[in-house]
Amino acid sequence: MEDTAANPLEAFRNVNVQGTLNLARQAAASGVQRFVFISSIKVNGEATQRGQSFMADDTPAPLDDYGVSKMEAEQGLRKVALQTGMEVVIIRPPLVYGLGVKANFAVMMHWLQRGVPLPLGSINNRRSLVSLDNLVDLLMMCLKHPAAANQTFLVSDGEDVSTTELLRRMGIALGHPARLVPLPASLLELAAAIVGKADVAQRLCGSLQVDIEKTRRLLGWTPPLTLDQGLKKAAEGL
Q1: Is 66 a catalytic residue?
Q2: Catalytic: which of 66, 97, 153, 221?
């Protein structure tokens, strides 16, 4: 999230594109029949309009270097599949949380645990996220399910929530009720822009929803954990 490389896109390409394709070609040469790749919802884009969702077969529209590198890796993997006959499955998760979660998700949980008041009591957005357990469950299914071959899937917990609702339910999972101050999202976005943190405000106030209907339909997959169960497991790691 804080690029220090002189050329971030090239740095991402070295790992996400060249590294991935090198591994895939070696896998195919070794007789591996199926290659499952964890991509990113950033291949679809950074945000959706509230009530609208990214679809698995949408035209890619990445907006940052990381998303571009993941898109290029997907494109390269499809070529490897055509050249070698090795099946490829692509999964694009949104924010992944669970036991040992880090970054902003962990920061928010620590704030809630300490009873810090947060100015996020009236955010009316919708965001999809996925627990680590649910993501791993889908990965395991994609290893062998016949219908998964050469498909792209989106994944989530199957429930979209606002930032405000997410924090309230985090608080319940932690056993520390969230102390939320209702400030308008527009005011938060303005303040964040002034201090150079517009991207943080976008993640907190903007929407990003994914549609997992294709995943459900082709694979018969249902997230085994609810959002509340996933948050409870994440809370146990603090």
Answers
A1: yes
A2: 66
